[in-house]
Amino acid sequence: xxxxxxxxxxxxxxxxxxxxxxxxxxxxxxxxxxxxxxxxxxxxxxxxxxxxxxxxxxxxxxxxxxxxxxxxxxxxxxxxxxxxxxxxxxxxxxxxxxxxxxxxxxxxxxxxxxxxxxxxxxxxxxxxxxxxxxxxxxxxxxxxxxxxxxxxxxxxxxxxxxxxxxxxxxxxxxxxxxxxxxxxxxxxxxxxxxxxxxxxxxxxxxxxxxxxxxxxxxxxxxxxxxxxxxxxxxxxx
Length: 237
Known about the structure:
It comes from Flavobacterium psychrotolerans. By secondary structure, the protein is an all-beta fold.
């Protein structure tokens, strides 16, 4: 039987550091909620706004799949693997931290803020060789569609990670309806609304709401207004 957990936008953790305005869907840094540790293998969903010219200094990660999706502006990335790049709106980036990496992320534009999602997924294999991947999406594929941006398969559309997870971005016109079919039995789906209002099997979601769903095979999505949203299908254990 289908089960759901609703995370309204205003129940998220919030930290305003001046240069960084961050909202946490799951426990992170100084915000701890014992009921909001993770959803299956989804450990972190941070909704960050970085002020012009500011950013995260060099810091370490290991044994985590880290996905960055810019929503507005750019992010300059530099890491211990020798990668230096600018991640732009419309791109998606993934790092498999594996045995360990260090990286920094800065907003390279002094006069423009950067908005982004940073997502952490537990990998199914520990201590892999660290890797980096960045692609530019064809955002037209998202119009009234579930456009795949991540999978476990290097030959598939989007980036890939060391986990049986599939991410899709959708940009629906008001009134549009579409059914999502689960990719792998036992997985759950976490839906996060970027903008607008939708329903998922009748459950209304508004901007920045999150909904975790388990024990289903299909889900019916309908846009109440024009709406953009992210679907993250991940293993539950």
